[in-house]
Design brief:
Layout (H helix, E strand, L loop, with lengths): L8 E11 L5 E12 L8 H7 L7 E7 H5 L7 E5 L13 E5 L5 E9 L3 E5 L8 E13 L2 H6 L18
Length: 169
């Protein structure tokens, strides 16, 4: 009998996120991502829920409405400035810039447009306003070791775990 994903099981998987409308792959993980189910929630809670009861070899697709998770797109988080006001290291599309407001709160912005005169950054989550398909391929499901449970995921041979990085179980 194949083991199924449930609390306390070590799971390895790969995934890709595809825009439902265009079919473009937005992001993907090629190397297995390992975690202990119920101890280290590395993905959105509803994705973990969809994984429960699944086994190694299963491939599942979870539709995601970006507006439900990240809220509606907020155009007040899109800023355009003259190119000369922006340091050279930020003048490339896709560059992430961490900015702080006058209250000390930080938000990540992504450069979305650059031309000879202006640069535009967007602080909205890239999934806002998008419907995507989260396709997960489950590679491994087995009982987690005590060490993996304490660490919340895969332990590399010979690696030491910093106790300050461990989450309570």
């Amino acid at each position: 009998m194949r083991e199924t994903i449930q609390d306390g099981k070590f799971v390895e998987l790969t995934y890709k996120v595809t825009d439902k409308k265009s079919g473009h792959v937005l992001t993907m993980v090629e190397f297995p991502l390992g975690y202990v189910h119920g101890h280290n929630e590395i993905l959105a809670p509803f994705v973990h829920k969809a994984l429960e009861g699944r086994s190694a070899g299963d491939v599942i697709e979870v539709p995601i409405d970006g507006n439900q998770i990240f809220g509606s797109r907020d155009e007040s988080l899109v800023f355009t400035d003259r190119i000369e006001n922006v340091p050279e290291e930020y003048r490339q599309i896709g560059t992430s810039i961490l900015m702080e407001n006058d209250k000390g709160q930080t938000r990540s912005f992504v450069v979305t447009h650059v031309d000879d005169e202006t640069l535009t950054v967007d602080g909205n989550n890239p999934l806002c306003g998008r419907e995507v398909i989260f396709k997960l391929e489950i590679l491994t499901v087995r009982e987690a070791t005590d060490e993996e449970t304490r660490a919340g995921g895969a332990i590399t041979a010979g690696a030491e775990v910093d106790p300050s990085l461990m989450r309570p179980v």
